[in-house]
């Protein structure tokens, strides 16, 4: 089933350019998040003769982006916990809330912010959220379950976290997010304090929380599945049939496999040693107006992948940015979407030209998949979802989590304005995974 969705992730991971450095973990431990994700954020460049000012400014920016990133994780996890029915999963997400709440406070404390009523309210919100999550972890550890009132409290906290995250994101993305200079000289110290006073006074309005006293994912390294090896000269001939003239540049070999790199007239191709296109990119900049709809972009992406020998279908369409529509393609067997076999394709929605493709996941994971579903019916699986979620779409999928594969029902759901994806195991009827759609600096992401 081909569905349009507003989920987007960073398309260019430049995996094969730095093949030895495989992965970015998704919301694992705050130290990893802070050190890896912030390096990928857009950080303002400060031009100043005083090196100390530049260094101080960049330190403030890192703290601001770290606070923003942690608040995003709090937002995502609070909403997910409120609708989850799996105790182990709830405990894991509550632990993430505690970790990220502590990180928000630490990073905000590093910023030159003057006192303001809303800053105090923000800190109180983060502290109370951390305390409440700690309390709920203790309750679950005793064998108890979340009650309706506690779920309502979590959703109320989630609403406050959503608004605060939106504020921090907008501030970090804007020109005002400079603490020592604003590009024209001194004078912007404390601007965040003023901006906090502009936050809607209802941002920190949530239900009174009752608890027992005060409390203060990644990608594993894998090897590309290789067939019979070919020489780089043979690879060049194959690419000539696909893309025209090309020039062999270099060979990259490590424990993941061997890759041949070629330059095209206006781009670059990376080819596995058994002759499959691993990555393709075009250098010319997209221009004009987006005139092609998502269905057409899906069609173009599928045709491109099929031309390269990949039997995949377009299963996700991400938000169009800068005239480029990102289409995620995957193997589909008997109506089951095989998410490990993912190929990402970037289509210029003005011209219809494919300007990028990356098949890392497909090359590492593809095999003869068994897509035999278990005995749990769709109706029984949907009954597990519950908790006020309104199901808008259902699909059969194969997913991977912690190096294990699960055949699941994928339920696309809404609660208010929030969108979720819930995955129920077709063999056990248990909740395997749950995502909340979050809008951030990169577009839309599931967390």
Question: How would you describe this structure to a colleague?
Answer:
The structure is a single chain. This protein has 447 residues and is α+β, with helices and mostly antiparallel strands. It is 36% helix and 24% strand. It is built from 10 helices and 13 strands. It has helices at residues 30-36, 51-83, 87-109, 117-141, 148-173, 191-196, 232-243, 294-307, 360-365, 378-385, and strands spanning 246-254, 257-264, 267-272, 277-282, 313-317, 324-333, 336-348, 354-358, 390-401, 404-415, 418-425, 431-440, 443-446. Strands 1, 2, 3, 4, 5, 6, 7, 8, 9, 10, 11, 12 and 13 form a 13-stranded mixed beta sheet that branches. A hairpin with a 4-residue loop joins strand 3 (267-272) and strand 4. The protein is globular and about 65 Å long. The model is unreliable at 1-49, 181-190 and 210-220 (pLDDT under 50).
